[in-house]
Amino acid sequence: MMLALAADHGGFALKEEVKAWLDEQQIPYKDFGTHDGASCDYADMAAPACDAVISGDCDKALLFCGTGIGISMAANKIKGIRAACCSDYFSAKYTRLHNDANVLCMGGRVIGPGAAIELIDVFLHTEFEGGRHQRRIDKIAALENR
Question: Kind and range of the H or E element at 105?
Answer without folding.
Answer: strand 103-107
